[in-house]
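input
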Amino acid sequence: MDARLDFFADPTAGKALKHLMSVGRLLKESPLPTATQELVALRVSQINGCAVCIDMHTKEATAAGETSVRLNLVAAWREAVVFTEAERAALELAEEGTRVADAAGGVGDEVWEHAAEHYDQEQLAALVLLVSFMNMVNRANVITRQPAGNYVAGQFH
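output
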């Protein structure tokens, strides 16, 4: 499968990608725990059907020490007992933030308050930006049918 667009070969996309990758690095350096970041990125990508991001974040999470059991259960996190309450709150916020078109009210107060019980303001800001960032990247990749399977952990660091 070939991508419809080579982001790295296009001058405009290349310039934009430099900035986007800077945002990605900034989020990686945030105080939001790495495991939470990868689980959220993976779940948002699953919802959006972004194969290349699922590939990337599964491999990044594995490289960071995440277990295959937890990675395999992200799609069914509500029924899985392997996630902390903080991770569950982040995943719930990520799902509601990703499915805003499906829920007229957006992210509900109860979901926000649950996340705020586990994360401070800086971590919440990073979580919101991560969910928003992943949704944007997922959409660009899905629209252009970016292929998955060739990502190597650390490739964009």
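quick obs: The two ends are 25 Å apart (CA to CA).
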